[in-house]
């Protein structure tokens, strides 16, 4: 008896091959609120202070660079956002699917039908977070200011990782024979931002089923992995806890760094080093976890309950 076959929700190879659409969206999308935001940035609402601070000499150059950058900001919404991320002023990239839908409508009908950008993101949001992050890595501009003693330790670490990856890539391009002693950091460890999707606001007057907010009772297994909007009452919220995304280990024998991507809540930490040096020498180097070099994401659980007007007669929420 033949096994049942389930069609994939998205053609990953075709979507990744058309990743240029996401890059073009990030580079050229213009929001109608950009001019209003620029006008508000030019207003000095905080006022000036005449008090002297010994940090003024250090902050003067950064303030002038920031003022010049804001005065020359373009109208591209996401390029301005990515510039703020590059300048270490923001740590979150929020992609509004309403903007993506507007961009998709600006394309010709054949291209929009073949891409189906918004539909693909809504059907498999977790997968397209990584695809969008790759597009962000390609189009993010270079920072206009260098890191200094005022920045966080993580900013210094991110800068060093990016420079090391760039040096390794240059060695790979110039060297054709022989192994490269250094390893490239995973992209999760060089990203200083967290990317999220903002769903399209549901419309109560719309007749389309997918454009309305769902009740808790209407959530089914078919929605697993989808980006949906649910109406309900929040009954419990957990504390914000760190959720590990990539574990970084250091070997006490060869000194290599080993990275372990974490894709589940439960995992087994690595114990023995798997680097080429340890395998050639027959040494079983012991790995030690480096929390500072690892990547963590904020994690929180929210429990919701049906609203009173959604509960059928004779049932409990």
TrEMBL record:
Chemical reaction(s) catalysed: ATP + H2O = ADP + phosphate + H(+)
Subcellular location: Nucleus
A cellular component term, taken from the record's GO annotations: MCM complex
Biased composition (Polar residues): 168-177
Enzyme class: hydrolase
Record key words, sorted: ATP-binding, Cell cycle, DNA replication, DNA-binding, Helicase, Hydrolase, Nucleotide-binding, Nucleus
Statement: the UniProt record of this protein carries the keyword Nucleotide-binding: yes
Domain MCM OB: 216-317
Entry-linked InterPro entries: MCM, MCM7, MCM_N, MCM_OB, NA-bd_OB-fold
One protein family per Pfam: MCM_OB
GO biological process, one term: double-strand break repair via break-induced replication
Protein task: Acts as component of the MCM2-7 complex (MCM complex) which is the replicative helicase essential for 'once per cell cycle' DNA replication initiation and elongation in eukaryotic cells. The active ATPase sites in the MCM2-7 ring are formed through the interaction surfaces of two neighboring subunits such that a critical structure of a conserved arginine finger motif is provided in trans relative to the ATP-binding site of the Walker A box of the adjacent subunit. The six ATPase active sites, however, are likely to contribute differentially to the complex helicase activity.
Protein name: DNA replication licensing factor MCM7
Upper classification of the organism: Eukaryota, Fungi, Dikarya, Ascomycota, Pezizomycotina
Gene name linked to the record: mcm7_2
């Amino acid at each position: 008896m033949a096994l049942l076959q389930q069609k994939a929700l998205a053609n990953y190879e075709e979507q990744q091959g058309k990743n240029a659409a996401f890059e073009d969206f990030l580079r050229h999308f213009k929001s109608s609120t950009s001019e209003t935001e620029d006008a508000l940035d030019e207003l000095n609402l905080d006022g000036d202070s005449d008090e002297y601070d010994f940090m003024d000499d250090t902050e003067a150059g950064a303030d002038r660079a920031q003022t010049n950058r804001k005065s020359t900001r373009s109208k591209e919404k996401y390029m301005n956002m990515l510039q703020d991320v590059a300048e270490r002023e923001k740590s979150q990239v929020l992609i509004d699917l309403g903007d993506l839908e507007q961009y998709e409508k600006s394309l010709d009908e054949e291209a929009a039908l073949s891409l189906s950008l918004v539909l693909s993101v809504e059907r498999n949001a977790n997968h397209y977070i990584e695809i969008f992050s790759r597009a962000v890595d390609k189009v993010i501009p270079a920072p206009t200011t260098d890191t200094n003693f005022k920045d966080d330790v993580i900013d210094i670490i991110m800068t060093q990782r990016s420079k090391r990856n760039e040096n390794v890539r240059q060695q790979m391009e110039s060297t054709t024979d022989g192994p490269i002693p250094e390893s490239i950091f995973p992209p999760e460890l060089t990203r200083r931002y967290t990317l999220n999707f903002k769903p399209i606001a549901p419309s109560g007057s719309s007749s389309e089923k997918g454009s309305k907010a769902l009740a808790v009772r209407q959530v089914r297994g078919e929605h697993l992995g989808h980006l949906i909007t649910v109406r309900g009452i929040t009954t419990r919220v957990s504390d914000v806890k760190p959720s590990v995304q990539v574990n970084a280990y250091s070997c006490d024998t060869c000194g290599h760094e080993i990275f372990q991507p974490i894709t589940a809540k439960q995992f087994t930490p690595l114990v023995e080093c798997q680097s080429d040096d340890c395998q050639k020498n027959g040494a079983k180097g012991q790995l030690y976890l480096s929390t500072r070099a690892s990547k963590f994401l904020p994690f929180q659980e929210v429990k919701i309950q049906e609203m009173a007007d959604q509960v059928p007669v004779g049932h409990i929420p």
